Amino acid sequence: MSETILIENEELAVEVHHLGAEMQSLRTADGRDFLWNGDARWWTGRSPILFPIVGKAPDDVIAVNGKTYPMAQHGFARRRIFDLVDHTTNACRHRLVSTEETREIYPFDFGLAVEHRLDGRTLTVTAEVTNPGDSPLPFGIGFHPAFLWPLPGATGKAHHVILDNGAEPGVVQLENGLIGKTLHGSPFKAGHLELAPSLFENDALIFPEGTGTGLTYGADGGPKLHFTFENLPIVALWQKPGAPFLCIEPWHGMAAHAGGTAELVERPYTVALAAGESMRFGFAVEIRA
């Protein structure tokens, strides 16, 4: 079996790798690729799925009822092979389930299904978490897609992020990878942010109050990507300073608080999914121009 799956329609083509159910490319019919290519000189990720935590844990350790377990930044799903459970021309669905190995570092049973689906010029990526156990399942989940900066055909043009709701959300800073206690003033002005590498000198911009349910990333006189979010109340923007990509990251979860506890249930925005229940999260991106 090939390591990647291709889905396509008359407008778009997307490749998805079985490792991490991670998208590898997002290409328009005219050959323009909008997704970061994973160049190891900058960052090997392209669009990882973050589960069962988002961000970092203190000393890379989580605690469950006082017992500690090793947990790398952004969790382990992005480093696991998913099973392909459905594949049509324009959609594919991958699934990861708990094993003896995962229970050694995350002592819960779970199911995580990730779907990529095309409809016209829109890609929708959803994750459904299922709790097959008999007690609440605590987790965080997020998406970490990286898009080209500059966008195709927009070299030398100003790039912006514009919020649908025109808000000016506050931002928190990371302290050694953990969430700082202070909510700082917004870099947005009336929902508008002109992008510059200097914004990311202190790591990601994290908006714990969210940015609303939609935003546009685009270039003056160039292409634009419009995003909508489902059940993902937090957004982060990240660029490794000077790298040719911008990550637009919708999350339900964050890193642990600096100086706070390692307990999983006390991480910001942790979900406690009831036994036998499922919950869905997702984002859609429409390519305009």
UniProtKB/TrEMBL annotation:
MF terms per GO, please? carbohydrate binding; isomerase activity
Entries under InterPro entries matching the protein: Aldose_1/G6P_1-epimerase (IPR008183), Gal_mutarotase_sf_dom (IPR011013), GH-type_carb-bd (IPR014718), LacX (IPR037481)
Pfam families tied to this protein: Aldose_epim
Its GO biological process annotations read:
carbohydrate metabolic process
Under the heading PANTHER family, the entry gives: APOSPORY-ASSOCIATED PROTEIN C-RELATED (PTHR11122), GLUCOSE-6-PHOSPHATE 1-EPIMERASE (PTHR11122:SF13)
Q: What is this protein called?
A: Galactose mutarotase-like enzyme
